[in-house]
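Morning. Coffee machine broken again, so started the prediction first thing and wrote up yesterday's gels while waiting. Chain of 244 residues, entered below exactly as on the submission form.
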Amino acid sequence: MSEVAELLEGKQQDILLICDHASNAVPPDIDLGIAPELLDLHIAVDIGAGPLTRSLAAALDAPAILATVSRLVIDLHREPDHVGLIPHRSDGHAILGNDTVDRAARIARFHAPYHRLLARRIRAQRPRLILSVHSFTPCLEHGGTPRLWEVGVLYNRDTRAAHAAIDFLRAQGFLTGDNEPYSGRLLNATLNRHAEGNGIPSVALEIRNDLIGHPAGVARWSTALAELANSLRNSLASNGSSAT
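Came back before lunch.
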């Protein structure tokens, strides 16, 4: 494990799992200027996403790359020039320690090596499918309306895996959002760069975090997403993975 990522190996190299927001870790030399308990909230980590990614990787015997730094330090799932890359406020909470940060230094320390690692991995062992695992809150702390979806499927231009994923999850009885609770056409930085940018089918899976914040939920969703991954593997093979 490095300062930026943990790599889990697997024998089934045709699927790669990514979890950009797996950790709430803050290096000891960085002071975010916040109360420690805020690191347990969704603003710091995608609750349940890390354990779910590890469980899914084990179920599929597939490799996974999990970030090892909190998105309050730097959001690895944002473009380097994104206004929210190093957040000064998140869901109503001021992140005062980021007000005077050296942006270029933090990018060089965390963001650049994380994405180099992803790029190297994909060049070395090109997967046929990339799945990105995230979680979302049932409702924002400050504003917003209840998010009733159990799972959201996010995608940008490449719909090869996304449409099939939506159909599969809805057929299994899950309340599934199509580019909800937010759109992958706006927030899809990692997959835009490493999947669409390389012509690899991909999908971002957003699970409502109250459903995976405990071991039973992780186990349930790991089983469901393993079935989804195998279904996508088969459908992409039968369709020849042509882009739409």
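The chain has one domain: 5-239. Going to sketch it on the whiteboard this afternoon.
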